[in-house]
Amino acid sequence: MPKKICIVVPCYNEASRLAVEIYLNFLRENAEMDICFVNDGSSDGTDKVLENMQSLCPERILLLNKEQNQGKAEAVRSGIEWVLEKGWYGRVGFMDADLATPLAEVCRLAKVLETEKNTAVVIGSRIKRMGVKVSRNLWRHYMGRVFATIVSILFRLNAYDTQCGAKIFTVPVAREIFAQTFHSPWLFDVELLLRIRQRHPDYNVIVKEIPLDVWEEKGGSKIRFSHLLKMPFELCAIYRKYR
């Protein structure tokens, strides 16, 4: 099986925030990783920015344009499904377009799949501690801890940070968990971990949560108040399915 990795990056109205040169320079210096951008029905010219970026590095950048916005969960899912169909990669994953998790950190997470034979899934974790650069908005940090506690109680998941936007999978596991649509466009990180647990009794062995050394809050979140109102109902739907 190929060892190369492809990272899916969902994009919705990111034209003014995409760090084009950072992406291009990284790809020029790191031959082991390709990037698949998914333009999720953007209306601000994101498609043009991505098309231009791809033209500058066509061998390393994949681009999937979607006509209508379907939310982050479906953008990630359809992007990973599209990448898997090509059969070029041994590992796939996803990260946020704003590079809150730097590309070098994503590479570090990916190497865990190479060095630890029993590991099939690696998820980043935003833990602020000494000696690292993890910068988070205080309000969002505490809201995140409340959410993590609720998830831990409801689903008996011992993950510290389900919502970190950096996750990497071996191809067999990715094929299993991304085959079907998710219940929520924003809480799909919880559901994908529950899908892994449902299919793999040794999920606590094959899933590794790795604290990030660098993570920076970028702002400009696409989550709106209307999304927040829906989340309790979406969480209940996930609970009914996976309890």
What does this structure look like?
It contains 9 helices and 9 strands. With 243 residues, it is an alpha/beta fold. The chain has a 7-stranded mixed sheet, with helices on both faces. It is globular and about 50 Å long. The termini are far apart.
How would you summarize the topology of this molecule?
Elements: E1 5-11, H1 20-29, E2 33-40, H2 46-56, E3 61-66, H3 72-86, E4 91-95, H4 103-115, E5 121-125, E6 133-135, H5 138-155, E7 166-170, H6 171-177, H7 188-199, H8 203-206, E8 207-211, E9 214-216, H9 225-242
Parallel strand pairs: 1-2, 1-4, 2-3, 5-8, 6-9
Antiparallel strand pairs: 4-7, 5-7
Report how far apart the termini are: 35 Å
Shape: globular
Strand element count: 9
- Helical stretch count? 9
Low-confidence stretches: none
Q: How would you write the strand order of the largest sheet?
A: 3-2-1-4-7-5-8
Q: Main β-sheet: number of strands, strand sense, barrel status? A: 7 strands, mixed
Content of β-strand: 15-25%
The helix-strand sequence is EHEHEHEHEEHEHHHEEH
Q: How confident is the prediction overall: mean pLDDT?
A: 91
Task: Summarize the amount of helix as a percent range.
Answer: 40-55%
Helix-strand makeup class: alpha/beta
Rg value = 17 Å
